[in-house]
């Protein structure tokens, strides 16, 4: 009988890697870091696996945790968490939910030089956010590829901007015509843009054609459909190479039947502005309010779908998505 007892260290590196990937990253470093040279090399190679850390409580890193933080590539921080951003110098993906001002102030290019994907969700106006806008749109983060800046109250501000050629994806809340012009000018290689059309908008002018933007998502509140369509047409005028367009429109008005009775669902605008369009998605979100449900009944929905199909018979794929929220 073989009395030899197998040990964890007898397993090959490939199997150990599969096991370690199922462990909490911090526990992994606490248990195996500095155990021996082999485990050190194995764990340190995990920097290519983009270790994930979700911070949900205020954290003061200890010595062994500082070693762990060096290998964190994805960092998500819950609202109002106090921590030192400088401990995560190798982060590639950063998501901050309502960050404290002193935390946001730490977000500097020299602190996170490898940052590629940034998401910041904030509820209140902060001066630190104004400074962040300037850093993002002035090419301070040289490796930044995608950026999400969501704020629920006002438009983002860009006091001084140059260009950020590395940004390919940008998502935000409110955009007006002036900000639209700035974003297109500041991001010449932008491929994907998502935004919410600001209510007090006007048709943009004097914007150089942006030839690299291929995918756009526009969300609209419940305002004047036909006036908003004029704004959309003005926005699309400067992105002639767009290949995919997605519209989100909501109904919170009892007058919605008046809007859609003779509506062409942007077909005319698309035919004029977007000769290269390949996919068009129109998301029509209906209210669950009992007073509004009756405005668009099942018969009306059938008619809407029929009208949509009739006007979008072209070279691009078109899909109407209707739901209640």
Outline the structure in words.
- With 325 residues, the protein is an alpha/beta fold.
- The protein folds into three domains: 12-49; 51-148; 168-325.
- It is 30% helix and 22% strand.
- Strands 1-2-3-4-5-6-7-8-9-10-11 form an eleven-stranded parallel β-sheet.
- It is elongated, with a radius of gyration of 25 Å.
- The termini are far apart.
Give a short synopsis of this structure.
The chain is α/β, with parallel strands linked by helices and 325 residues long.
Radius of gyration: 25 Å
The succession of helices and strands, N to C, reads HHHEHEEHEHEEHEEHEHHEHHE
Biggest pleated-sheet summary: 11 strands, parallel
Distance between the termini: 67 Å
> What is the SS-derived class?
alpha/beta
Q: Can you tell me the residue ranges where pLDDT is under 50 for at least 5 consecutive residues?
A: none
Share of helix, binned: 25-40%
Strand content: 15-25%
The number of strands is 11
Task: Tally the helices.
Answer: 12
Overall body shape:
elongated
The pLDDT mean sits at 83
Q: Total domains, how many? A: 3
Q: Numbering strands along the chain, what is their spatial order in the largest sheet?
A: 1-2-3-4-5-6-7-8-9-10-11
Pfam families: F-box
Organism: Rotaria sordida
InterPro entries: F-box-like_dom_sf, F-box_dom, LRR_dom_sf
Protein name: F-box domain-containing protein
């Amino acid at each position: 009988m073989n009395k030899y007892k197998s040990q964890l260290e007898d397993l090959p590196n490939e199997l150990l890697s599969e096991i370690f990937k199922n462990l909490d990253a911090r526990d992994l470093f606490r248990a195996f870091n500095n155990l021996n040279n082999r485990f050190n090399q194995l764990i340190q190679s995990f920097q290519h696996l983009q270790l994930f850390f979700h911070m949900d409580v205020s954290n003061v890193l200890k010595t062994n945790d500082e070693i762990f933080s060096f290998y964190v590539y994805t960092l998500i921080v819950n609202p109002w968490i106090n921590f030192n951003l400088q401990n995560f110098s190798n982060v590639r993906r950063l998501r901050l939910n309502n960050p404290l001002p002193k935390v946001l102030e730490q977000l500097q290019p020299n602190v996170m030089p490898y940052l590629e994907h940034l998401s910041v969700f904030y509820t209140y106006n902060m001066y630190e956010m104004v400074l962040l806008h300037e850093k993002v749109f002035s090419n301070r983060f040289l490796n930044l590829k995608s950026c999400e800046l969501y704020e629920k109250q006002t438009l983002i501000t860009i006091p001084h901007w140059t260009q950020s050629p590395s940004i390919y994806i940008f998502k935000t809340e409110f955009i007006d015509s002036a900000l639209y012009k700035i974003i297109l000018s500041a991001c010449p290689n932008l491929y994907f843009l998502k935004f919410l059309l600001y209510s007090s908008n006007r048709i943009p002018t004097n914007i150089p054609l942006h030839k690299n933007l291929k995918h756009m998502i526009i969300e609209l509140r419940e305002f004047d459909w036909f006036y908003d369509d004029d704004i959309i047409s003005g926005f699309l005028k400067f992105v002639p190479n767009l290949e995919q367009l997605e519209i989100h429109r909501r109904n919170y008005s009892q007058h919605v039947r008046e809007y859609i009775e003779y509506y062409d669902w942007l077909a005319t605008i698309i035919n004029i502005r977007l000769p290269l369009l390949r996919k068009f998605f129109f998301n029509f979100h209906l209210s669950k309010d009992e007073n509004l449900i009756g405005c668009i009944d099942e018969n009306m929905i059938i008619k809407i779908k029929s009208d949509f199909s009739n006007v979008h018979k072209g070279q691009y794929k078109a899909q109407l998505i209707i739901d209640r929220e």
